[in-house]
Amino acid sequence: MWNWLAENLATVLICLALAGVVTAIVASMIRKKKRGESGCGCGCGSCPMNGSCGGGAQKK
Predict the structure, then answer these.
(1) Is 0.85 surpassed by the pTM of this model?
(2) 23, 6 in Cβ contact below 8 A?
(3) Most exposed of 5, 13, 50, 60 (fewest Cβ within 10 Å)?
């Protein structure tokens, strides 16, 4: 077990780092959704889906 871990330590660390980045991105998206911000980062005024998405247009 320890031998396998020592041989694959770089791979394990890279996978853990990537999992952390993905978790941070998902958590950020969830926080934005709860605050009512749009997902694209721009205003909803010129969006063709204005009024029908879950973005900031419905909160106003």
Answers:
(1) no
(2) no
(3) 60
